[in-house]
Design brief:
alpha/beta, 3 helices, about 80 residues, 3 strands
C-alpha cells in the first residue's frame, strides 16, 4: 500500500552538531518528503552551510533563513515558511 505524500518543516538554530544526522536520517527513509524546509532562525554556526550542501544534492530540500527579530514559537516558523 502506498503511503500518502508529506512535507517536512524543521526549525533549526545553531544545530551544526546535529543537523547532518537529522538530514541523513530523513534521507534513509523509504519514502522521502515531497518538500523539506529547514527553517534556520539566525544560526551563527555551520547549520546553514550543511543544509545548503545537502540541498544542492536533493531538490526537495531547501533552506529558509529567518532574519530580523527572533520570535521563538511554532507560529513564527509556520509564518516563515509562507515567505517567498
Amino acid at each position: 500500500m502506498s503511503q500518502p505524500p508529506y512535507v517536512l518543516v524543521t526549525p533549526a538554530k545553531n544545530e551544526g552538531k546535529t543537523i547532518e544526522i537529522t538530514i541523513r536520517s530523513v534521507l534513509a527513509q523509504s519514502q522521502l518528503p515531497l518538500e523539506w524546509i529547514v527553517v534556520s532562525n539566525q544560526s551563527t554556526d555551520e547549520t546553514d552551510a550543511i543544509v545548503l550542501k545537502f540541498a544542492s544534492e536533493h531538490s526537495f530540500l531547501r533552506l529558509l533563513r529567518i532574519e530580523g527579530e527572533s520570535r521563538r514559537s511554532f507560529a513564527a516558523v509556520v509564518q516563515a515558511t509562507e515567505a517567498p
